[in-house]
Amino acid sequence: MLSSLCLNGVLLVLFTGPTVSEFVVIGEVGQDVTVPCHYSVRDRNGITSMCWGRDRCPNSKCSRPIIWTDGWRVTERHSSRYQLKGDLHSGDVSLTIVDAREADSGIYCCRVEVPGWFNDQLINHEVVITKARISTASPHTYTSEQTSAPGSTSEPSFTVTRTWPSVSASEAPQTASAPCSGTSDCLDVTANLQNTSVSLPSQQHPERGLYIGIGSCAALLLILILALFLT
User: Superkingdom of this entry's organism (predicted)?
Assistant: First the structure.
């Protein structure tokens, strides 16, 4: 009975294996990406070896290993782009991928070898390397406004209209109604109009002229008659 219980316990440990944690790490192309991994170090005797692999953690060691450490220094390295920049003596064995590429995406295994059966600390990381975001600046529309130079004032336009009395075309002064080009021009035109005196001939009554003409004709006719009688 006791032996069967022990056998079941051993089989349970063999089939279940150590507990594996899984995390997701997202980075960008061209950036340094750090995949975290730590283990507890109480004293110098707690420092142990570990490895990083490019696949899920197997039952032992690392599949497709990329870097190894004996706990004190890096003993094997697949590429200089894989670095352990943390303090190894304190249990910081985080993996830094220098100048990450899209091909670096995938599953990474951090395996810390702890003495004893099935005591290894296993962590699987899914690393996702995405292309760097390109920020597209929306086009801006700049509107330039023409403003007066400092110290200058805008000059409004004036229109001067002058009404003259009814006179003959030859005597009537020529006037124009047009906008002034500036304040000084408008003031000069106004002053000239005020200082200009227009002499208008006295208006003659049409009835009086008619009477004078008739009297002149009658006098001429009377002179002609007298001249006939005398001859």
Answer: Eukaryota
Give this prediction's pTM.
0.52
97: domain range?
24-130
d(CA 20, CA 121): 7
Give a yes or no: residue 112 inside a domain.
yes
Rounded Cα distance between 80 and 51, Å, is 15
CATH code: domain of residue 57:
2.60.40.10
pLDDT tens digits for range 122-153: 999 999 999 987 765 554 444 444 444 444 44
In-domain check, residue 60:
yes
- At residue 188, the pLDDT reads 57
Residue 144 lies in a domain: no
DSSP-assigned states of every residue in 16-78: H-S-EEEEEEEEETTS-EEE--B---SSGGG---EEEESSS--SSS-SSEEEEE-SSSEEEES
DSSP SS3 for 135: coil
Does pLDDT of 5 surpass 80?
A: no
What pLDDT, in 10s, does the model give residues 177-214?
445 555 555 555 455 545 544 444 444 455 666 777 78
Q: Is the dihedral of CA 97, 39, 75, 114 positive or negative?
A: negative
Return the beta strands (E) in the chain as ranges.
20-28, 33-35, 50-53, 65-69, 74-77, 82-83, 95-97, 106-112, 121-130
The chain-wide mean pLDDT, for the chain, equals: 74
Does residue 146 lie in a domain region? no
